[in-house]
């Protein structure tokens, strides 16, 4: 028997991140769930049909002098099948916190992609794997001289001054060319019908706009 979250993931395949954000805006969820500054680097740089959707598996890096103990095992060996790996690291960290071997293991475990709230490395290796990676930027140095993993599957804060966003274990991450969106698990059932309604309306609008109807008239008629 399929798990309820599997049904949500299957349904999300039909929608873009913009569709998800539109629905979340209607539900008054801040910024439509958009996570700023995270863009696609692999398998291509902001190109192609790549899209990922799945429940999030979070990883929290902290500075070495943080009193929290280091996580006892490597987080990548515990990634669940179907998950999106979300790696959080402190702001303004010049070192990469994720590399090609991480993707190789995540891919073997059945992860659908990784989102790095910071820098990652081994870009060519990532692309050769055909593994989806979204991140803030690339780098070269590994993290061990500056950071340690303190926890997995805990809420993490988006590392930006632009937003106050929290990503929680079990929330859904959807990512494509438009960026990365978090869909809170408790809003999924409400959001999906709104996505369907919006997409159907937009499709009807597009047909009429191509025939010459104004945007204002099409919007009033179909939305």
TrEMBL record:
<dbReference type="GO" id="GO:0046872">
    <property type="term" value="F:metal ion binding"/>
</dbReference>
<dbReference type="InterPro" id="IPR005493">
    <property type="entry name" value="RraA/RraA-like"/>
</dbReference>
<dbReference type="GO" id="GO:0008948">
    <property type="term" value="F:oxaloacetate decarboxylase activity"/>
</dbReference>
<feature type="binding site">
    <location>
        <position position="122"/>
    </location>
    <ligand>
        <name>Mg(2+)</name>
    </ligand>
</feature>
<dbReference type="GO" id="GO:0047443">
    <property type="term" value="F:4-hydroxy-4-methyl-2-oxoglutarate aldolase activity"/>
</dbReference>
<keyword id="KW-0479">Metal-binding</keyword>
<feature type="binding site">
    <location>
        <begin position="99"/>
        <end position="102"/>
    </location>
    <ligand>
        <name>substrate</name>
    </ligand>
</feature>
<dbReference type="InterPro" id="IPR036704">
    <property type="entry name" value="RraA/RraA-like_sf"/>
</dbReference>
<feature type="binding site">
    <location>
        <position position="121"/>
    </location>
    <ligand>
        <name>substrate</name>
    </ligand>
</feature>
<dbReference type="Pfam" id="PF03737">
    <property type="entry name" value="RraA-like"/>
</dbReference>
<protein>
    <submittedName>
        <fullName>Uu.00g112770.m01.CDS01</fullName>
    </submittedName>
</protein>
<keyword id="KW-0460">Magnesium</keyword>
